[in-house]
Design goal:
Elements lengths: L9 E2 L2 E3 L2 E3 L4 E2 L3 E3 L22 H17 L4 H12 L4 H14 L2 H12 L3 H4 L2 E4 L5 E7 L2 E5 L5 H13 L3 E5 L7 H12 L9 E4 L6 H7 L7 E5 L2 H8 L7 E5 L3 E6 L7 H15 L10 E7 L2 H15 L15 H11 L6 E3 L7 E5 L11 E7 L13 E7 L1 H14 L3 E4 L16 H5 L1 E6 L4
Parallel strand pairs: 1-5, 8-9, 8-11, 9-10, 11-12, 13-14, 13-18, 14-17, 16-17, 18-19
Antiparallel strand pairs: 2-3, 4-5, 6-7, 7-20, 15-16
Helix pairs in contact: 1-3, 1-7, 2-3, 2-7, 3-6, 6-7, 10-11
Length: about 450
């Protein structure tokens, strides 16, 4: 009998202070990485952050050059990272291809300038000391000072790595990025591009990226200390956030992009005409399928105002569009998890209360109900909840609600204060769930949280 040989693990490089490190000493089965050198990955406290005195304008020049290199990929490094990601990332190839093709565009000067202006109030406060006078007449100077950041990034979208690098660079911080097992290659590919366009530049020397198993106390217990880092910037699920919280204490804080769920509110105006319903369900499907519904901004519960027959028309139209190909969504079927299939089989037995639109072929399902289902809709599954008035949906909003997409605009204006009072962090027009940088994310400005705000008070002489 022929036994198929086990394929060798895919090599996943590290980056240490701007230098790529290759090796396969640490074997994790599907992939292998270089041996961790914890001492090399930290920056001594008695040395200033390398980029502290580099003007933001120069940093933007470097980042724009990184974007240009990612777009041209002259040495094929990004293409290699893509091919390896296809083998280790759960997202389908076509979504990854489009995401990688778009990485360079994220390094956009106008977007970075907007971030600096919106989140810090201008480059002067990060490049130097902004002078103010207090109401008593005391002179003070304020600076957004670089800190030392340990990033635990999410792997559900390559853009997370790009945004983490841009934010860390614009704030002149030193940054250790823990690579996620489902996106081992995006951050290192970007950092290798950074090293190519600006070798040994202070910004380049401000970044390290490495993989270790999440929660490994032998690594995190040594790294996540205030003598090495000021803050953990953690993305991910509850276990990731709770794991990071273990290390929080005086002098060491958590900046959490914690797990969220997003929803949509659809007013009865959607049924004004067939054309309107078609437009609304197209927008709703777009919001529901961002990164194949793996993003926190992806709508999973949609509260629809209207009579039963109209809501069922909405469900049927929405289900037909969930499987369409979009920039961040694939038409490739997603296998239905066994436990979800069991849940759906159970719901089908209660046709008076629930109706399931679509089959088990992985091309999208809609469950219509009068109250939110108990399971977590995922992989292009949307729970449409029928309501008599959109205001009824507010009671289902909490601090775990990130984005609320609303149609039409007038209803958004009416509901936004109540939604935000209930805990929602973002209200947007239906179809605009994909966020843009420079606006608050999860209820705060990231750049503002990354830095340490310090003051120098008193006369100059």
């Amino acid at each position: 009998m022929n036994v198929q040989a086990k394929p060798p693990p895919l090599p996943a490089p590290h980056v240490v202070k701007g230098e790529a490190v290759f090796g396969v000493e640490a074997d994790y089965g599907r992939f292998a990485t270089p041996k961790l050198d914890l001492d090399a990955m930290v920056w001594p406290r008695n040395e200033p952050a390398p980029a502290r005195d580099v003007p933001v304008a120069e940093i933007m020049d470097v980042l724009v050059a990184v974007g240009e290199r990612l777009m041209s990929d002259p040495d094929g490094s990004l293409a290699e990272a893509l091919e390896r990601s296809v083998k280790t990332n759960p997202l389908p190839r076509d979504v990854l291809e489009r995401s990688y093709a778009d990485l360079g565009r994220i390094f956009n000067r106008r977007a970075m300038m907007f971030q600096i202006e919106q989140e810090l109030g201008g480059a002067d406060v990060i490049d130097g000391w902004r002078e103010v006078a207090t109401p008593s007449g005391r002179l003070a100077r304020i600076r957004a000072f670089p800190t030392r950041l340990a990033h635990i990034i999410a792997g559900n979208a390559p853009g997370v790595a790009a945004q983490s690098i841009i934010r860390g660079a614009l704030t002149k911080c030193v940054n250790l990025i823990k690579l996620p097992s489902n996106d081992l290659y995006s951050a290192t590919a970007i950092l290798r591009a950074l090293a190519a366009v600006a070798p040994r530049h202070p910004v380049t020397r401000s970044f390290s990226a490495a993989y270790w198993r999440g929660g490994d106390a032998s690594v995190e217990g040594r790294l996540f200390r205030p003598q090495f880092f000021d803050k953990i910037v953690a993305w991910g699920g509850e276990s990731t956030i709770r794991g990071a919280l273990k290390y929080v204490g005086p002098g060491f804080e958590l900046v959490a992009f914690d797990p969220k769920t997003s929803i949509s509110l659809i007013g009865r105006e959607a049924f004004a005409s067939d054309a309107t319903l078609d437009d609304v369900t197209s927008r709703a499907a777009l919001d529901a399928t961002l990164m194949n519904q793996q993003a926190c901004v992806s709508s999973r519960f949609q509260f629809v105002e209207g009579a039963g027959e109209d809501v069922d028309r909405y469900c049927a139209a929405l289900q037909a569009k969930l499987g369409e190909e979009r920039p961040t969504s694939s038409r490739t079927p997603i296998p239905l998890a066994g436990d979800i299939r069991d849940e759906l089989d159970g719901l089908r037995a209660f046709e008076d209360e629930y109706r399931v639109f679509g089959g088990y072929d992985g091309r999208g399902l809609v469950v219509r109900s009068d109250a939110p289902v108990d399971f977590y809709p995922d992989n292009k599954i949307v729970n449409v909840v029928r309501v008599a008035d959109l205001a009824e949906a507010v009671r289902h909003v909490s601090v775990a609600t990130q984005t609320v997409g609303v149609f039409p605009a007038r209803r958004r204006i009416e509901l936004r204060d109540a939604l935000c009072s209930a805990g929602a962090q973002r209200v947007a027009a239906l179809g605009l769930a994909q966020p843009e940088t420079g606006l608050p994310h999860d209820g705060f400005y990231p750049l503002h949280r990354f830095v340490r705000w310090v003051t120098d008070e008193g006369e100059r002489d």
